[in-house]
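Note to self: the last two entries modelled the partners one at a time, which told us nothing about the interface. This time every component goes in together.
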Amino acid sequence: QITLKESGPTLVKPTETLTLTCTFSGFSLSSSGRGVGWIRQPPGKSLEWLAVISWNDHKMFSPSLTTRLTITKDTSKNEVVLTMTNMAPVDTATYYCAHRPSSWSSFDSWGQGNLVTVSS
Amino acid sequence: DIEMTQSPSSLSASVGDRITITCRASQDIATYLAWLQQKPGEAPKSLIYTASSLQSGVPSRFSGSGSGTEFTLTISSLQPEDFATYYCQQYDSYPLTFGGGTKVDIK
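The predicted structure of the combined assembly is written out below.
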């Protein structure tokens, strides 16, 4: 059974850097084709894809956020870390991580989400 | 970017009704289309991938069809637990994009 769980702050100040950790079980991110992605959802709005990291350390980012995002993995700890710099109130959202079983697949398992509010 | 447009944005239906939600892509995405269900306060749940394949454990009353630019999600007989918001998502190319959602509520 695949599970993912996001952890990180619930409140950050404008201009600060957000660091979120996705801790997962039930699969290895060293297995060929697998990936972990990050998706966010502002309150009452639709979903926005942010980034994905693959088993071979290949990374893809949303073009609108690429200058602000970093994604890394620690295969030994079963963790993926997303950092987003220069946070603003418009970045207030629930941040989800999700599992991608192969290179040409959708996300099949999602974490419970971490609501992040950006406010001074 | 590939734009995903869902219709309707909301619908009201009764238990037992058959409903259909449409998703249109701004360019050909073959069958690289997923459908997600989200209930209030919960994370999205994957229902369908490659346009018509059900994820494990998803009831057979859910079905998906389409290819290219037009896709549909059908629920053959709406159950109380199906009242939720549904999203389509393309994974043909980056950036991955989602539709605006269709909220299904009780008539």
